[in-house]
Amino acid sequence: VSRISPEAPVPVVLVERETFLLGGASNVVNNIHSLGGQVSLCGVIGDDEMGLRIQRELTENGIDVHGLIVEEGRKTTTKTRIVAHQQQVVRIDREMGDPLKPSTLRRLSMFVDGNLRGFDGIILSDYGKGLLTRELIRKVIRRAGETRKFVMVDPKLNNFFLYRGATVVTPNTSEASAAAGSPITDLSSLKRVGKALLKKLRCHVLVITRGEEGMALFEPDEEPYLVPTVAKEVFDVTGAGDTVIGAMALAMAAGAGVREAARLANHAAGIVVGKVGTATVTREELVRAMEGNF
Question: Could you tell me the domains of the chain?
């Protein structure tokens, strides 16, 4: 930004470079892969240039995309962020709010039926775009229980209580407050909301991510477990929740307990918020960050 436009009271931004970054569920699987995990992506993209680019990038990164469904006529969700002097100026969203076609939903269901047994765990990343329907959510949780797989959920408010019975649910402070109908303003209200949601969701663990204050874990018959933040610098919180759930799921798949997994994920998030845009964390970065701090 160097000047104000003579046409309207808005800044003029001179484009110096453009960067393409995977976001949403693609960012979750990219983080898992970056940390050394094997991961498959199940989701929906449009039959457009951006959808093809996402598919190509994921494949080049070594991520299994057999569950990635191309829906004819759908626009791939794309977010364009204009950044000047490390400050986001504006975000432009391109997406469709139309429901998925019945044929697409059937293909998603078939992928779950045919592949669930081969996974250690499942992540349901809900971005409120219509992919995670009531029927699909309940099916995944039911089938995961039958096959002894864990289910981790990054929820959206509209579907919040459809995730009853999941293994781990990870709302942020704002989402937890809205779901409980009670604001989180201090430690006392945090504990009250966390315990209430844990009981109502009937999940094994509730993890409330708290931004610069770290995270809080709630388990039945246990006192809340508070994990303080380890971030040294915060440039961009975009996609930090994706990093948390990806790192935590990978740790649990490798045999870590939920508290150990949460501490690992907290360190991973502390690294990623020091980067600009949706970003990933490598094993080497995580090991260095944890040395003497775990």
Answer: 22-76+101-290 (3.40.1190.20)
